[in-house]
Amino acid sequence: MTGVLSAGDLLAEARALTTARLGACSARLLQRPGGRDGAALAYALEAPGKQVRAALVLASFRTAGGTHPGIVGVAAAVEIVHTYSLVHDDLPCMDNDAQRRGRPTLHVRFDVATATRAGYLLVPVAIEELCAAAAELALPAGRLGRMAARLLEASGIRGMVAGQWLDLEAEGHNPALDELVRIHERKTGALIEAACVLGGLAAGAADPLLDALQAYGREVGLAFQIADDLLDATATSEQLGKTAGQDARLAKATYVSVLGVAGAQLEAVRHADLARAALRSGGVSSETLETLADYIVQRRS
Ligand code: GRG
């Protein structure tokens, strides 16, 4: 269970592999009947994200001893669910944003109805990708079922949708830190946690390792959201490829609004430290996962 790549190398590799996989997926979607919807799906899938969740799938898989290249399909499935969430998050009825990943958002490039449909359509596309990956990895049906259940649970009413809902409800309020954690462990943390667990499951990890990956994922998920809040408050739209300062504009409850910039920075580092501690107390040695926790806190976009 020893990681060998730096976070930078892993991210570059994850981006190259996942971008190719998503490109193949969008090419297939463009061949299906559906015209405008196919074009909208391809536009969403080809947008250049950082693919941190894909990197976490790969790193967790390798930490658990996995070597098969089919894991990129699992990474793509997680990234597709994430992409759906961004498409819907940007809609006028949610955060109403015009820019994402350095390009016009899907509803601006197409229209609201198309973007709404495309968001929903991405979820079954993600599951198709997961099933294809499970076949490539020759996973037993029970393992695929466990992975699908984990991914869908993280995306739904016990995960991302619940977190987004709580986040929208908290606009204009000044919640206590524990309420903020309740929101973000669901909205952002659940999918990041699932990325780590799916990587472990795909490699056939036993429960103690899965528990350590889950605990690591929970902490880096919160660290990721805190960094997101800090970047929204301190970086430019050009750096981020999306509209900076949206949180203040929408009176969002964020780690910066609750703790201030310096307090939020300390809190992000604290969660990255907890992530590393979770690995160590589970007996997991992965330099890659450890440095990914640093990257998540120190990233500039
Ligand atoms: C129906 C209430 C309801 C919800 C639908 C829209 C939605 C589901 C969930 C939103 C979840 C969301 C947008 C969480 C934010 C997570 C986050 C920090 C996104 C930014 O991720 P990056 O920086 O983006 O990894 P890139 O573009 O690099 O992939």
What do you see in this structure?
By secondary structure, this protein is mostly helical. It has 14 helices and two strands. Strands 1-2 form a two-stranded antiparallel ribbon. Strand 1 (about 100) and strand 2 form a beta hairpin. The radius of gyration is 18 Å and the shape is globular. The two termini are about 30 Å apart. The model has no long low-confidence stretch (mean pLDDT about 95). Bound molecules: geranylgeranyl diphosphate. Geranylgeranyl diphosphate binds next to helix 4, helix 8, helix 9 and helix 10.
Widest sheet: strand ordering? 1-2
Discrete helix count: 14
Q: Structural class given helices, strands, pairing?
A: mainly alpha
Number of strands: 2
Low-confidence spans: none
| Bound ligands | geranylgeranyl diphosphate
The share of residues in extended strands comes to under 5%
Distance between the amino and carboxyl termini: 30 Å
Alpha carbon gyration radius = 18 Å
Instruction: Please estimate the helix content.
Output: over 70%
Largest sheet: 2 strands, antiparallel
- Rough outline: globular
Mean pLDDT reading: 96
Secondary-structure element sequence? HHHHEEHHHHHHHHHH
Quick recap:
This protein has 14 helices and 2 strands, in the order ααααββαααααααααα.
List keywords for this structure.
single chain; 301 residues; two-stranded antiparallel sheet; 14 helices; 1% strand; globular; binds geranylgeranyl diphosphate
Secondary structure layout:
Blueprint: H1 7-31, H2 36-45, H3 52-63, H4 71-89, E1 99-100, E2 103-104, H5 106-109, H6 112-136, H7 141-155, H8 160-169, H9 177-202, H10 207-234, H11 237-240, H12 246-249, H13 255-281, H14 287-298
Antiparallel strand pairs: 1-2
Helix pairs in contact: 1-2, 1-3, 1-4, 2-6, 3-4, 3-9, 3-14, 4-6, 4-9, 6-7, 7-9, 8-9, 9-10, 10-13, 10-14, 13-14
The structure holds geranylgeranyl diphosphate.
